[in-house]
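FAQ
Q: What does a multi-component entry look like?
A: The components come first, one per line:
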Amino acid sequence: MTCVVHARGLRYRYPGHEEALRGIDLRVEHGERVALLGPNGAGKTTLMMHLNGLMIGDGELEVAGLRVAKDTLTALRARVGVVFQDPDDQLFMPTVREDVAFGPLNMGLEREAVQHRVADALSRVRMAHVVDRAPYQLSMGERRRVAIATVLAMDPTLLVLDEPSANLDPRARRELLEVLETIDRTMLVTTHDLPLAAELCERAVILAGGRIVGDGPCHEILADDELLAAHDLELPAGFDLSAVATRSRPAVGAQHGT
Amino acid sequence: MSGLCSHALELTGLAGDPGSRVHRLDPRAKIVGLFSVTIIAVSTPLAHWPVYVCCVAVLATYAAAARVSPRAVWRRVRFILPLVLLVAVFVPFVRSGGDSWAFGPLTIHQAGLEVLGAVSAKALIGTVGAALLGATTTFPSVLRGLEAMRMPRLLVLIAAFMYRYLFVIVEEAGRMRAALVSRGYAPRNALQVGAMGRMASAMFLRTYSRGERVYHAMLARGYNGTMPQLHPLAFGRADAVFVAGVLAVTLSARIAGATA
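Then the predicted structure of the entire assembly, as tokens:
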């Protein structure tokens, strides 16, 4: 089985700035859930934008079996679902139904199939009851879950989440986590919320200064206080890592990558 | 600010019975029907005032069929109508002709009063027509109707995004204003309003970068330049009957008035 993400020597420089990615080598296998950690400005968002071709850097990058290049973008974007940090950016249609239908319709599916996907995606994030509401009538937690439904409706191979727990109150965060636990997809989650990473992901990758500086089982990485401190990361005071159930096995049963 | 926001939300929402036959009409039928009522009223001179009565009767029937209460209509027109009428109020004092009556330094002319009467009637019919369209058709449906009627897609897209992000931007402006006020900003003269200007430019930049992020989010879900439609509009028999009925009543009144 090929892997979902395979980057070799990936580099990217914003015009007029220093390099944001300085040679990323990363493999993510099918079914893995990987937390992408790192301080602000480490290159997390830049890397995320590469995964569905919103940015195209130097080096080699294969995602979901496709080489990322201009001619593969349409197919690539159907296979990679990106959930952006601010749901108000993601939900741009007047109603939830139209928003969730936007991706599948762009993929050229029949309207009946699209209706089916909308209902299915919304029920998977427990949001079926808001289908005819407008996004601004929803709470932040509800918007976030609808935003996840908008990409689930495209049935992606890889789900990329940017700071999924940002701006959520504890209860909305708990509900989001419960929803994410049930989603059987390869996931890449960029976050500062280390407890979320510990609960959701079995593997953690630390990005700093455009390079990968740590990669391993999530619990080992998060237990390495020195490594975390060196990159401005820390668990909340009093957080007991050992009390979190370990997610050791990938959802689909593929092997760990390194 | 949130009060303003929720009020604006209420005004853009539906009123009356959302399951009524009027609400279920194709948006194109409602746009054409109500717009033609306005056109006919606007094209009618005051001398043929029964046409105005006919237009009002059509609108009243429309409202009754959709179960939109007069109060709901009033809530929607009370902000726009005074603005429209503000200009017309001065006409009786400046337009001379016919009889005139002096009130101290001011003189009211009959010709001016006639213009005021005609403008008021036309403004009332036009705004009530628009308010009824808004009360019986959601804004997205109006946009889809306009798009189906060959309105340039770019304009429809701009209106759709304005509708979606208006409240986001108003809330953002509210937060920025709160931040200014909580740091003691209370302008006492014109020189101190510079901070508002900087706030406006910050708003512009934020909105601009949001536009870019939204565009990225659209691309990420396969946007290729055209907005896909989930439900194609269907112009059925009820829609044709509605448009024909409205046109028959108002046009015949207009023609009868002109030939009388």
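Q: Is there any commentary attached?
A: Sometimes. For this entry: Confidence is low (pLDDT under 50) at residues 1-10 of chain B.
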